[in-house]
């Protein structure tokens, strides 16, 4: 039995309350989803709810359905359960008869497709291949049209569009790097989808680096390297995600090197993504790293405020909801790190609005995101910023208040002032006071300077991104 009674939808304890929570979720989904989708995927599910509400296990009839529900609906169900219950609940999916496959839903899958009535293509290459049929593994929802453009992705987007329009020529390979949830996977799928729209016969494959590793292992075990080569070396466009996963996998690196050379020799295009630039990759052979860097390497930056606002408004619209601009600004100011987190915040707000049958407003967003906002408010103080920045740049915290002026100290101090203005509600004079009694014009100068440089200098922008992530915990 739970010590703390479940909130909102439930007013009883134990199993009944658990089923009540699930029922409330199902009812909401029945309203949100097209009838056919709801009847096919959601209605047949049964739920087991842990007595303390820490976990909900959904029982699914077969593995195919399980994978599809995980990819298409788990994010939405998870957010809805959290909105209804008032705190996170672990969502698991298991096979109904024999709980052989149990998969915990942790976070939205990188390329999580938007719900659609269509089941996933079941033809394909690799393990689940139907002989003679080629599967691209592309997600049709991830296109250039659904990708919001901003300063943060302008260069990567335009390079990707160029590749899609004229593969095999400039920018080969195209290497896209950046932090989590910034749109690398989306951009890759967009290239593949655009090329296929222009040339439906093109052989395009999207694959995550881990899947490539697994294909190499299988080819090795089964001695099917000829098939493996035939599969990879015959592509027109290879989109390979998260190549940092090749680290320390020598055999995979060798096979990837061979595929790389073969594809480039026949003027096929390769697009790769990674969490860092090629020379920053650890435990990858030099000859591969230099190949990765031999075309065009572009970074995806964290989206700027206006871009975050546009993303929220667009995504709300795609969900059939309207998000007023002032609400989008409020959310975008509070959720800064990446697009995936923005999507999570949006899902919470929409679920909260639907469940409570209230219009989307700043007040409603504040309530729906209360946990997130309270974590931020609790953690981010000017003192915390000063300490984090001092640690990061390896200076003393006391230098934040001192009158010392060498650049090695003055610059981190300006960065800390900028972050204090960005991440706290403090006024310029208050911040000046906390930095050793400095004048507010000094703070204003620092804030403007760092904000301006952030737009120009990739390295500074990334450092600020890391600091922001650290401060938000
Ligand atoms: N500019 C954008 N406009 C609209 N949606 C975006 C944009 N950038 C990212 N997204 C969305 O944000 C989510 C996360 O993006 P994506 O999975 O491409 O990130 P990623 O950089 O590949 O992250 P990871 O490294 O964690 O795999 C996706 O749902 C994607 O569609």
UniProtKB/TrEMBL annotation:
Q: Which GO terms describe its molecular function?
A: ATP binding; DNA replication origin binding; lipid binding
Residue span of region Domain I, interacts with DnaA modulators: 1-110
Instruction: Read off the Pfam families from this record.
Output: Bac_DnaA, Bac_DnaA_C, DnaA_N
Q: Where is this region: Domain IV, binds dsDNA?
A: 354-473
Residues recorded as binding ATP, renumbered to this chain, are: 181, 183-185
| Function noted in UniProt | Plays an essential role in the initiation and regulation of chromosomal replication. ATP-DnaA binds to the origin of replication (oriC) to initiate formation of the DNA replication initiation complex once per cell cycle. Binds the DnaA box (a 9 base pair repeat at the origin) and separates the double-stranded (ds)DNA. Forms a right-handed helical filament on oriC DNA; dsDNA binds to the exterior of the filament while single-stranded (ss)DNA is stabiized in the filament's interior.
**Domain description:** Domain I is involved in oligomerization and binding regulators, domain II is flexibile and of varying length in different bacteria, domain III forms the AAA+ region, while domain IV binds dsDNA.
Q: Indicate the quaternary assembly.
A: Oligomerizes as a right-handed, spiral filament on DNA at oriC.
Family membership, please give it: Belongs to the DnaA family.
Task: Name the chain's protein.
Answer: Chromosomal replication initiator protein DnaA
Q: Origin organism of this chain?
A: Paenacidovorax monticola
* Gene name for this UniProt entry: dnaA
């Amino acid at each position: 039995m739970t010590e703390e009674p479940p909130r909102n939808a439930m007013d009883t304890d134990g199993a009944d309350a658990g089923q009540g929570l699930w029922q409330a979720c199902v009812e909401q989904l029945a309203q949100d989803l097209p009838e056919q989708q709801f009847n096919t995927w959601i209605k047949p599910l049964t739920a087991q709810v842990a007595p303390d509400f820490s976990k909900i296990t959904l029982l699914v009839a077969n593995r195919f359905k399980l994978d599809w529900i995980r990819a298409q609906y788990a994010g939405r169900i998870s957010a809805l359960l959290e909105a209804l219950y008032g705190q996170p609940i672990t969502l698991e999916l298991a096979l109904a008869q024999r709980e052989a496959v149990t998969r915990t839903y942790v976070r939205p899958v990188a390329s999580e497709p938007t719900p659609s009535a269509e089941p996933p293509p079941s033809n394909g290459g690799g393990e689940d291949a139907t002989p003679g049929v080629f599967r691209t593994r592309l997600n049709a929802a991830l296109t250039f049209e659904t990708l919001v453009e901003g300063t943060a992705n302008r260069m990567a987007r335009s390079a990707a569009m160029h590749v899609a329009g004229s593969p095999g020529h400039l920018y080969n390979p195209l290497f896209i790097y950046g932090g989590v949830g910034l749109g690398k996977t989306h951009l890759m799928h967009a290239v593949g989808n655009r090329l296929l729209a222009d040339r439906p016969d093109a052989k395009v494959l999207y694959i995550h680096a881990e899947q490539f590793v697994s294909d190499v292992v299988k080819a090795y075990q089964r001695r099917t390297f000829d098939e493996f080569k035939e599969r990879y070396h015959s592509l027109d466009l290879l989109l390979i995600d998260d190549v940092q996963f090749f680290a320390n996998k020598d055999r995979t690196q060798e096979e990837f090197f061979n595929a790389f050379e073969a594809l480039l020799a026949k003027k096929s295009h390769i697009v790769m993504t990674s969490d860092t630039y090629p020379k920053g990759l650890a435990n990858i052979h030099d000859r591969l790293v230099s190949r990765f860097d031999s075309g065009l390497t572009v970074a995806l930056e964290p989206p700027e405020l206006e871009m975050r606002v546009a993303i929220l408004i667009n995504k709300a619209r795609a969900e059939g909801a309207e998000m007023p601009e002032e609400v989008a600004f409020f959310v975008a100011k509070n959720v800064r790190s990446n697009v995936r987190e923005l999507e999570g915040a949006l899902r919470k707000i929409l679920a909260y609005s639907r469940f409570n049958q209230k219009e989307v407003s700043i007040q409603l967003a504040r309530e729906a995101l209360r946990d997130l906002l309270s974590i931020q408010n609790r953690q981010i103080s000017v003192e915390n910023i000063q300490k984090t920045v001092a640690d990061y740049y390896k200076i003393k915290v006391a230098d934040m208040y001192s009158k010392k002026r060498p650049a090695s100290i003055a610059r981190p101090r300006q960065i800390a002032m900028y972050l204090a203005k960005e991440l706290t509600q403090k006024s310029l004079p208050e911040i000046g006071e906390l930095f050793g009694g400095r004048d507010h014009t000094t703070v204003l100068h620092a804030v403007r300077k760092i904000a301006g440089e952030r737009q120009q200098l990739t390295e500074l922008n990334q450092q600020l991104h890391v600091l922001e992530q650290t401060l938000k915990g």
